[in-house]
Request: fold
Amino acid sequence: MSLITVERKILEKNDEIANLNREKFRFKEMFTMNLVSSPGSGKTSLIEQSINVLKHKLKIGVIEGDVQTNLDAQRIDALGVPVVQIVTNGSCHLDAMLVRDAFQKLIDLDLNLLFIENVGNLVCPAAYDLGEEMKVVIISTTEGDDKPLKYPAIFHNSKALVINKIDLLPHVNCNVDAISKNAYSINSELKIFETSCTTQEGISEWCEYLLSMVK
Ligand code: MG
Ligand code: ZN
Reply:
């Protein structure tokens, strides 16, 4: 078998399991979000802020994907929210099988909203359906305006873009309008949010959106 055939077979198998995951999530009436970004853009911080605002309105759970350590899961656990850590031992993305196995530990909890924090990487997470209802791509103001053009697949496959760390705008060479313009050129349907997990700016708009998706 050629390498391309092997890769296609892996993705076909993944999609099969992802569809089963999605059926299970929908049957449970749970809205599932797959959060994708480069390392350090603020995925865990955004989840923490969302939990702080919404924990009395929704039953939230989290699956944390990391290459090593359970440090992010500890942060979520400290908020009293059920969390399962997936350590990929070097693999740079989550796949539907890992999520299926992790979800077994949350299946009896009647969650309304499940966040899946992917491994920090803008490349392969775009290709791996986990069974989520939507992908969210996060980029921070410390990254380049040209990220959407360099990594178009994840911007194309996401329903929402969160531009995070806007509190740093006075200190960094970042043009938020250019990020939005580049992102829209890839995906004109994207819903774009501007947030700071430090000052909480934009967090209430983001949480309103989450509530409207879950309802
Ligand atoms: Mg994280
Ligand atoms: Zn990967």
About this structure: The helical segments are 3-27, 43-54, 71-77, 96-103, 147-150, 152-157, 176-186, 203-214. The chain has a mean pLDDT of 96.
